[in-house]
Amino acid sequence: MNQKPKKVVIIGTYPEHGSRNIGDQLITTCLTEVIESLCDAKIDVIWRADQWTNVREKILKADHVFFACLAIRHQMHNKEYPYLKQIIESGIPFSVIAAGTSLPVHERSHLFSNISKDSLSLLLSINERAAVFTTRGVVTQEFCYHHGLKAAKLAGDVAFYSKQYAKRVFIEGKRINTIVISDPHHASAYLGAFRKLHANLSSMFPEARILVAQHGASDVVESFCREQNIECVKIYEHRYDGLGIYAEADLHVGFRVHGHVSALKRRVYSYLLEQDGRGCDYGLTLDKRISVPNYLMSNKITLNNIAKSLLKRSSGQGAIASTVPADILTSMIRQDQVNGFAKFTGLEDQIESFNSNTYRSVQTALLGA
Fold first, then answer.
1. Beta strand pairing status for 251-254 and 41-47?
2. What 3-state class would DSSP assign to 179?
3. Taking the CA of residue 235 as centre, how many other CA atoms within 13 Å lie in the half-sphere pointing to its CB?
4. What is the CA radius of gyration of the chain?
5. Contact at 8 Å (CB) between 12 and 30?
6. What is the pLDDT of residue 369?
7. Is 124 helix (H, G, I), strand (E, B) or coil?
8. What would the DSSP string read from start to end of 239-274?
9. CA 309 from chain center: how many Å?
10. Residue 131 burial by Cβ neighbours in a 10 Å radius (0-12, 13-18, 19+)
11. Phi then psi for 45, rounded to 5 degrees?
12. How far apart are alpha carbons 129 and 93 in whole angstroms?
């Protein structure tokens, strides 16, 4: 007799009514692929910041609930996941797949203390009750270690998962004909870095086609590209297949971690400018050095700087990201090109180890295997 399909709920991070960040959809898509490869499942996807009254029925009828890339944040208990407590207390089996942090790596101290007592209390409950609890990067894993979340295990990002690309390898010495630059978060602060990166790549690869992949809605990015006569593709408007743009690329360089992931999973050379703790997490987790920090640094607290900060705020300005990291990253890319991008050889093995970890984790959650 055929078993009934499992009722599975995925708590996703895709902001359908906000930036429409296509990387968040990738997370849900990949987790769905894993689940469907393991069992016959009826899958419902719900928004992480929805109201309990809107999601209660689906959750309480589920055989298993998955948090796709649980966003560990300072006030996650009432902002990112307002119904987190209800899920924990419901008794419904749940798992965390590839939890991630965005820790204040730009600060001078207190890396792991940026979490409220209420959020930490709920994380400790998750630690006790989750069927599976994995993290996507070493910084997130260290956060869990620091706070006694002993169930958490480093597995890598579920967004790398793909049966389609599993047999591919990185090929040395590919000619760079098409370059995709992923757009920055906080675009107003990063326009200088963005401009510098584009200029450097244009100089290094004068015959290449260079286009910008816009991962989320941003008038700033769109206006900038139009003014600079830069080809810009709004991939966020194509929620389910927009990231296919990386299949056309020979090289990705940019700011989006899931642009980085989307290129690497297709075995396309890729380099990342780390904007925050999320980028830092990827940079330290991957075996190859293919990223450079480009954080918005905090200023020293002085009366003079406070006055400057207040003046900037009143004029609608804010902190401006340094353009130096774009030059640093360019120096890495230039030498890697001389070496035929041999650095990437073997990186597919680590990516496939992430995918094996993800598969086994979801298998354990659903089937207890």
1. unpaired
2. strand
3. 28
4. 21
5. no
6. 56
7. helix
8. TTTGGGGGGG-SEEEES-HHHHHHHHHTT-EEEEEE
9. 30
10. middle
11. -110, 130
12. 8
Would you call 65 helix, strand, or coil by DSSP?
A: strand
Nearest by Cα to 301 from 291, 309, 293, 290: 309
* Contact criterion met (CB below 8 Å) for 257 and 184: no
pLDDT by 10-residue block (mean), the chain, 369 residues: 82 91 97 97 97 98 98 93 97 98 90 94 98 98 98 98 97 98 97 98 98 97 96 97 97 98 98 98 98 81 44 54 98 98 98 98 90
Tokens 């640094």 belong to: 297
What burial letters (b/e) apply to 133-144, b meaning 16+ CB within 10 Å?
bbbbbbbbbbbb
Q: Which helix (H) or strand (E) holds 319?
A: none
Q: What are phi and psi of 5, to 5 degrees?
A: -60, 140
Distance separating alpha carbons of residues 188 and 180, to the nearest angstrom = 20
d(CA 112, CA 177): 42
Contact 149, 127 (CB under 8 A): yes
Q: What is the pTM of this model?
A: 0.93
DSSP 358: H
Phi and psi dihedrals of 243, rounded to 5? -70, -5
Interhelix angle 22-38/347-367, nearest 10 degrees: 60
Amino acid in position 185: H
Q: What is the pLDDT of residue 298?
A: 57
- Residue 121 neighbours by CB under 8 Å, 6+ apart: none
pLDDT, residue 341, reads 98
Helix (H, G, I), strand (E, B) or coil at 49: coil
Query: What single letter denotes the amino acid at residue 249?
Result: A
CA-wise closest residue to 69 among 35, 45, 115, 100: 100
φ, ψ for residue 228, nearest 5 deg? -90, 0
pLDDT for the residue 2: 54
DSSP percent split of the chain into helix, strand, coil, nearest 5: 45, 15, 40
Helices (H), the chain: 22-38, 52-60, 84-90, 117-129, 138-146, 187-204, 219-227, 257-265, 277-285, 303-314, 324-338, 347-367
With beta carbons less than 8 A apart as the criterion, state whether 24 and 215 touch: no
| Contact present, 256 and 248 (Cβ < 8 Å) | no
- The predicted structure's pLDDT at residue 109: 77
